[in-house]
């Protein structure tokens, strides 16, 4: 527009008028003033410390990924748009998008350690039981406890420091497992040592709080997917939110095609087998399974989506808690469960514990009515045998072996199963 006016001005006869028009219209500074462009205001999320749980720190998980949230490199909506408001804070999990370059985005799961209601109730319990007030500084209250004072003095995370915590992962702790937790704790920059010298007081409180409320993020850190463990990748945490690679819950596949159901059932059995027998001699078992415990990546690969109910027994060292230690309880024992809840004895966990639960709760829903007779009848029979095998490990093994034998030829080999395609064309392994 300025150029057009300048051209028009060149036709003005009066030299003084020409100079005046040129001064007013052809100057870039005047043009910017007289014809302002509408500034592009980039809408953004109004992130609050309360939504993220940062106001509760250091009674939180960590802060390793907070910058991503505030730079909008993590977004809660699937349309990669930043104009939407934050989702409701009462939800337990959210679907989000994550980027490292603002160009390519990938799906992530954003989850809370527990529901907002449980968090609020636990926070209130901390204040009322420790300081006799309705509200308080959670950090100040927890730092006063005898357990945390022992953590501050400790050079190494030992079984007595985690005794009585409700997390299934810590019901039968070995020194080897606890060393692994400290060495691989991802919320500190210089992990690698089994000694806690590199942990500040703040770091110790965050680690203790996470272990007390929900060990899911710790399991993702110490048994990473890049080493072949069947967990989604841990990307970081901010306040009381955990960010990990996205998986679709198994419940979404209950109505899947027969060949997909057969594939997922075989993967599920393989995951349980690897968790019971692995190179590190850790025996993993579930205390509970449901339709959200397992998830499936976009390439068809099945993983453990929720590790919060996963227990670990060290077959190499065994549990190093002596009789009676498990029953010692304090405020950290009661943040998510009733303080009167009894712990399951390590000796009561059978080898096929998880297999039986999966045969009872998940496989029937996944495989029900999927195949023609007599195949479906045989599948149902083996599942029933497996589900009733709590006292017969050998019977469970035989039922699972026969079930796998039936399911293998029912799978197909195509691009829907990208995790094993096109290898399945050339290998008998698939």
What does this structure look like?
A hairpin with a 7-residue loop joins strand 2 (93-98) and strand 3 (106-112). 38% of the residues lie in helices and 10% in strands. It is built from 18 helices and ten strands. Helix 16 runs antiparallel to helix 17 (393-407). It is globular. The chain is of the alpha+beta class. The strands form three sheets. A five-stranded antiparallel beta sheet has the order 1-2-3-5-4.
Overall spatial form: globular
Main sheet? 5 strands, antiparallel
Number of helices: 18
* Percentage of residues in strands: 5-15%
How many beta-strand runs? 10
How would you describe this structure in keywords?
430 residues, alpha+beta, five-stranded antiparallel sheet, three-stranded antiparallel sheet, 18 helices, 10% strand, disordered N terminus
Short description:
The chain has helices at residues 2-9, 15-25, 28-34, 49-52, 66-70, 116-130, 138-143, 146-153, 159-162, 175-183, 201-213, 216-222, 258-276, 353-361, 363-367, 375-387, 393-407, 423-426, and strands spanning 74-75, 93-98, 106-112, 234-238, 241-245, 248-249, 282-286, 294-296, 302-304, 310-314.
Q: What's the helix and strand layout?
A:
Elements: H1 2-9, H2 15-25, H3 28-34, H4 49-52, H5 66-70, E1 74-75, E2 93-98, E3 106-112, H6 116-130, H7 138-143, H8 146-153, H9 159-162, H10 175-183, H11 201-213, H12 216-222, E4 234-238, E5 241-245, E6 248-249, H13 258-276, E7 282-286, E8 294-296, E9 302-304, E10 310-314, H14 353-361, H15 363-367, H16 375-387, H17 393-407, H18 423-426
Antiparallel strand pairs: 1-2, 2-3, 3-5, 4-5, 6-8, 7-10, 8-9
